[in-house]
Write a structure and sequence with these properties.
Strand content: 15-25%
Number of strands: 11
Largest sheet: 6 strands, antiparallel
Radius of gyration: 20 Å
CATH architecture of the largest domain: Sandwich
Strand order of the largest sheet: 2-9-4-7-10-11
CATH class of the largest domain: Mainly Beta
Number of helices: 11
Distance between the termini: 54 Å
CATH superfamily of the largest domain: Regulatory protein AraC
Structural class: alpha+beta
Order of helices and strands: EEEEEEEEHEHEHHEHHHHHHH
CATH topology of the largest domain: Jelly Rolls
Shape: globular
Length: 291
């Protein structure tokens, strides 16, 4: 089974990703990505496959995985046929190893954490009281923003640095044949969007840049981002709009057009879709936080 190269869009004003995966079952396919990942299952049972390891998971299961390690969580049959008592539910954190700088883990205070990050290349199941500490911090992060969320991430790093009770999953031999980074096509697509999101980008333009058919490009986004091409581009634009709003006094209309939206109404609609509130309310919250 070939693993899919897979990534979630990251907010331009955030350095790491925290999200809740909730539904009848976990939809992600057998996949890998550049980000390191912590996965806490809060509800569901089933099998997890990490590299060449196959094991079972239950509530409170917590796994830490390094970059480009293929994995998938498969729910038990009752989640697929709709007879499970609860939805499948998990809290997930994604971060890049160098998101705090390329030498972050080389400073003396970070050496214990660096050891665990190295172990995570094969995937580790976290056990004992440290698991409970991390699980609690992860759930709290869903309702936190900014420095408060960052503080919890560093508290998790402290837990990982103290970790003694864990199980390594994939075999050492499995790592030898794994990808070491994003594919060239993946990088071409991401770089083009990041450099051109303020302009009109059509599927035809993108398919020519990526040297893919439009159908293949659409499937690429559905498989790797679980959203359409247009949804992905809009998510990048909204993230940039948030950055501009926090750094300048430009009007909302100016920001909308600067970020590639062709109408203020569409910008307002998309902003509320991705942020849950309209741009004016978001700006008022920013101003309140500065006081």
């Amino acid at each position: 089974m070939k693993a899919v190269e897979y990534n979630l869009p990251q907010e331009l004003n955030e350095s790491f990703i925290v999200f809740r995966e909730r539904g009848q079952f976990f939809p992600a396919p057998w996949h890998y990505h550049e980000h390191l990942e912590l996965v806490q299952v809060t509800s569901s049972t089933g099998r997890r496959m990490v590299g060449d390891h196959i094991g079972f998971y239950d509530r409170n299961d917590l796994v830490f995985m390094g970059s480009n390690l293929p994995h998938v969580w498969v729910n038990d049959p009752e989640y697929f046929d709709g007879t499970a008592r609860d939805d499948a539910d998990a809290v997930v954190i994604h971060f890049k190893r160098d998101f705090l700088g390329s030498n972050f883990t080389d400073i003396p205070e970070m050496m214990p954490l660096k050891k665990i990050i190295q172990e995570s290349a094969r995937g580790i199941v976290i056990k004992g009281t440290i698991r409970d500490e991390i699980n609690s911090l992860m759930v709290q992060m869903l309702d936190l923003k900014g420095i408060e969320r960052f503080k919890n991430l560093f508290a998790i790093f402290d837990c990982l640095a103290r970790l003694k009770d864990y199980e390594v999953l994939a075999s050492p031999a499995f790592l030898n044949n794994q990808p070491t980074g994003p594919s060239d096509r993946f990088k071409i697509i991401m770089e083009y969007i990041m450099q051109n999101f303020e302009n009109k980008i059509t599927l035809q333009d993108m398919s020519e840049v990526a040297n893919m058919s439009i159908t293949s490009l659409c499937n690429f986004f559905k498989e790797r981002f679980r959203m359409t091409f247009v949804e992905y581009v809009n998510s990048i634009r909204i993230g940039q709009a948030c950055v501009i709003m926090s750094e300048t006094d430009r009007t909302i209309a100016q920001i909308a057009y600067q970020c590639g939206f062709n109408s203020l109404a569409n910008f307002n609609r998309q902003f509320k879709k991705y942020k849950g509130i309209n741009p004016s309310t978001y700006r008022k919250k920013l101003e309140t936080e500065r006081l």
